[in-house]
Design the sequence.
């Protein structure tokens, strides 16, 4: 499996957090709608290193707004998998995601997730068990959730392990089969209603 806690890399961690900082990662397209600027205060937390992975039209604006953050650009494959697994916390800021692939990849890799209580993350993150769901569009929610996890390594480990367990078995095949099952169920219900109306 590509995304797995076993890909955690001491070398990556030494390079990104030479002072032993807690690594908070974001992975995604750097665009205004992703709301990455909500992590500005997170990037200023003492003992925290915010790592932003991705590229896009908002890159230069974000670099200027978060000078303490580390921007790595676009990463793929094993390189990306190592980064996910080497994060201590994963922060996903966009309230507009319908699925949340980055959230799934992070959960499979082991860190707890902080995400908005909106869109796809609601179906993936179990608040208080695998991470935290925070109010969308509010930077203080992300900052407080990250601060809580930074100060509690046991909670980070417990949330990360629970997230990994929750995501196991959620392959594209399994998700596709589940979707087809929903369609079959809806078709059956619809057929029943049509028959009832005809009767």
Sequence:
């Amino acid at each position: 499996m590509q995304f797995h806690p076993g890909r955690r890399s001491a070398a990556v961690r030494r390079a990104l957090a030479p002072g032993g900082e807690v690594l908070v990662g974001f992975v995604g397209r750097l665009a205004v709608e992703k709301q990455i600027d909500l992590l500005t205060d997170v990037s200023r937390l003492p003992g925290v290193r915010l790592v932003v992975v991705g590229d896009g039209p908002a890159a230069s604006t974000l670099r200027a707004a978060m000078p303490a953050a580390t921007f790595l650009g676009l990463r793929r494959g094993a390189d990306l998998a190592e980064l996910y697994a080497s994060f201590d916390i994963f922060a996903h800021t966009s309230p507009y995601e319908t699925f949340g692939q980055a959230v799934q990849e992070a959960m499979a890799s082991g860190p707890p997730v902080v995400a908005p209580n909106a869109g796809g993350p609601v179906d993936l993150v179990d608040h208080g068990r695998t991470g935290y769901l925070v109010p969308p569009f509010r930077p203080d929610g992300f900052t407080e959730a990250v601060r809580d996890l930074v100060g509690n390594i046991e909670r980070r480990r417990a949330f990360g392990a629970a997230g990994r367990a929750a995501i196991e078995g959620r392959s594209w095949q399994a998700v596709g089969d589940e979707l087809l099952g929903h369609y079959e169920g809806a078709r059956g219900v619809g057929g029943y209603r049509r028959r009832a109306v005809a009767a």
User: Anything to note?
Assistant: The chain has two domains: 5-168, 170-199.
